[in-house]
Amino acid sequence: MKLISKFAVASIFMGAFSLSLLGQSSSPLWKKIEASTLNSKEKVHRNNIPTKAQYFALDFNQLKTKLTAAPNREGFTGKSNLIIEFPTSEGKIEHFRVWDSPIMHPDLAAKFPMIKTYVAQGIEDPTAYMRFSVTQFGLHTMTLSGTKSTNYIDPYTSDLNNYVVYDRNSLGPDTQPFECLTKEDDAKLRSIEKDRNSGNTFKADADDMKMRKYRLAQTCTAEYGNIFTTGGGSDAANKAEIQAQMTITINRVNTVYEIDLGVTLEFIANNDDCIFYGATNSDPWNGEYNTATQNFLNTNIGDANYDIGHNFNTSGGGNAGCLACVCTDGSKGSGMTGRGNPTGDPFDIDYVAHEMGHQFGGYHTMNTCSRSGNGQTEVEPCSGSSIMGYAGICSVNVQNNSDAHFNYVNIRDILANIKPGGNSTCSVNTDHTNNPPTADAGDDYIIPQGTAFVLEGTATDPDGMGSLTYNWSQNDPAQAPSSSSPVSTWTSGPLYRAKMPISSPNRYMPVLSSVIAGDLFPTWEKTPTVGRSLNFSFIVRDNDPLGGQTASDLMKVTVDGASGPFAVTSQNTTGITWNSGGTETVTWNVANTSTGNVNTPNVDIFLSVDGGYTYPYTLASTVPNNGSASVTVPTGAATTTARIMVRGSGNIFYALNSNNFAIEDAEFVMNFSSTSATPCPTENAVYNFNYNTFLSFSETTTFSASGNPAGSIVTFNPTTASVNGTPVTMTVSNLNSGMVGSHTITITGTSTSVTKNNNVSLEIIDPAPLAAALALPANAATGIDPGITFTWSAGGTGTMYNIDIATDAAFSSIIDNASGLTSNNYTSSSLVGETTYYWRVSSYNNCGSAPTSSVFSFTTSSCSTIASTDVPVTVSAATQTSTITVPNSGTIADVNLLGLVLPHTWVGDLGATLTSPQGTTVQLFDGPGIPSSNFGCDGDDLDVSFDDDATSTSATFENTCNNAPAINGFFQPLNALSAFNGENMAGVWTLTILDSYPTEDDGSLDAWSLEICTEPIPTGINNSYLINNIAIYPNPTNNLLNVTLGKDNTANVLVLTDLQGKVVYELNNINSNTIQIDMSNYGKGIYLLQVKGQNESKVFKVTKQ
């Protein structure tokens, strides 16, 4: 807000009329004008002038007349019939449904009838949520939208007839200094975290269909009051001017609080008793505001008569006075915000909404600038950019001012505080009919390093308003390694800035325009080039003016340091032109993404015709991720700005080619229904295509082929074509076994003036594969790790394999099998320790089958050792993690952590924990050398192992401090590793290194391994119906998985988990021999199905395609 009369601040409002005005720049209320025509008029004083704005004349009196028909929002159902038009920062007129929405107690409103507030929702843009005020200082609006930057309308001339319309991006930095002096209470934050992690009553969202109204006692100093009144009028008139400015500010604060939190603030009935002006020594404040405000409210208002108290002043700082203390007697009235010019967006959003956010339970979000809290909320890089950040007042700023939204962590914590069970539940709640939306952040993914990706959420709105907005934010509060802008090699802390909610549920990381420009590392969205985890929050807002509702969900992206960058390697030079209907080749760098941790065997290929911003054409779906694919250029896609996207099928990573290229419509094209064939040597290869013409082309085209195997014969039927739509069949015959292998055939269409080529692939497969020769595990081998990969000899081109693994030589007790394998290796997730197994492989292709291999046996060890693969990682933050994924299922009998190599100065700063896939955490050590020394062991480096049976105790570890390595050898952990016993070992194990002084000393985690021993298979059970009589099909499956139990089967429990150990399906007390599990909504990948009986269990690997 800005200053009118003496310095009065004002903003604007908008009018109404027929929807036929859509897109126009004027209306019965508004007339677009040039700023130069107002040069002779007195202007409203502003400290911050928009760099780009639109100017409109307003019929202010007509607007006020129209607003008398606005229905009161409280208790209202349905849609308001009052429609008023407002200008946008783009110079257009848009329409809004308007409700009367008072934010003053009726008694206070009766004293100041000239002060009115309203809420409105866009019609052309349903995501647009507006609050505006009508006062003696004119009209002030604030509009949040998912399609454009925050819009404002403020008075431009002092006569209140002309208004400036601008967006948030057009405002420059706020040059007034500011400091938030709120002290964040670690103990209270830990209490909130404890409540959150209990998982029972905590909810992160505004989703209970209530609008929470809190009574606001808003005080001000005389210095603040004197800015807005000349003091020459009556006391009531002077206070009316000051109350109007307070209303303008709180009305804009309410815009955000209503959308994000379902909270609205209402001035108390006697708020005029809180207003001061005139002599500056006449008010209760003398440079101290928190205690003075609390004491004033206690004495003059009374604890029972308000819920939150705040003070406006002209100091250069803010201090909430307390955290999560709204409704708490003795502290709820101690907040304050001060600015030399306490008006406008920086004051309202950056400071008032920020300090009140503390009072409601929100903590700072900036990760490194003035970092505070205990590491649970600092999820935004450097200064941050949401309300609870420090945008514009840090040495390294994401941007100059805060965006008008709360981060997920703030919504989470504030809602925990104001919902039942929190500290601030004294609101008056109004039930409304707006149903909450739903939010689904999707599956967790593993992606290659150095590669762009896109986060894709889904949501529903039961009310069908079309008003949903979406917000993705990184959710990694660990302290970044330095206070600089993000660096791609950071393994902790946030790499991606927070952004305003938008109308799309997807967020490209980094922003798509940067990827198009070839920049994967813009300053505030750094693509990681090392292995690490990225956690993300997904918030859906429904922006309903009756009461905002939200939904949220979380997901994780694991960046694999052993793969990537995934990159398109074709179409990267200038001067490239494709012809419609032609066959072209797209190539890319697979970069170890088809196997390994990323394990994405297929890709999808898309075409953009607008320079890479949208991709309406699918050139290929689920083609092998082998680095090359032939695609057919679509017709009707002529452009000079074509781009290619190659994306992992069923994954979120992608890459673009680096240059625009052209597509031209051709005179004719040969549109193949399929460009590949895999015949046996005794068969023919058949390809079908349609001959299509364009541009009035009518010449006769003759077809020919080259590149076919020597001795083969290629024929076309018909041999020529001239009519659009002619079907043509190409046959390759006279094949033989000497032609086995891959061939590329070029089909040429030749007319009098034009020649076109298309390529097809021909892969002639072996007439019958060779029998598999088993390799590993070797026959009669012992001590085999249960996680071993089975390998055997390759059977030749086009060969597929079936493998059986059993506990008896007759294969009557098969514990695992797989069919249709295309590679000559397989890793089972069903092996356990101390067991003898038998295995065999059969080979086949489309032409025939080979004899089954010989049978090998082997015996497993009861223990397996798995080493970490994401090391080394730098230990430069308060917490640093490394993970090991155990693919095999088994009941844990013993766990040891081996070979922990941790080069680090001053090891007394360090601690470590180990967390199982089921979430059990064991403290390995904590600050060696403490308490015998307050600062712990000052030696360098650890090279240790932990075993409950080690002869050296944890106390010995505690008291050891040598030269490098400071501590070396086997030790008992601080807490027993036996806490993991009885759990399933499958899934992700996390080692967390804790550093008490991350900025003082340096180090790295170089290596560690897990040795896990499992319980042996139960013995003495004869005629095991559980083992012998279970059928799982189809496997792999796309949706339904059938589980059939034998007639006398004793199974009574089914449990389906992912490889992280998360239970996704469980069925107890089985009473049917046939069970169907719907897996259609599960992510693609491997799952473990455990069938439990009274004395034993069996685990099957299930593949979801």
Automatic annotation (TrEMBL):
It comes from the Bacteria. InterPro entries: FN3_sf, Galactose-bd-like_sf, Ig-like_fold, MetalloPept_cat_dom_sf, P_dom, Secre_tail. GO terms for biological process: proteolysis. This is T9SS type A sorting domain-containing protein. One of its GO terms (molecular function) is serine-type endopeptidase activity. NCBIfam families: Por_Secre_tail (TIGR04183). SUPFAM superfamilies: Fibronectin type III, Galactose-binding domain-like, Metalloproteases ('zincins'), catalytic domain. Keywords: Hydrolase, Protease, Signal. Residues 1-23 form the signal peptide. Residues 849-1018 form the P/Homo B domain.
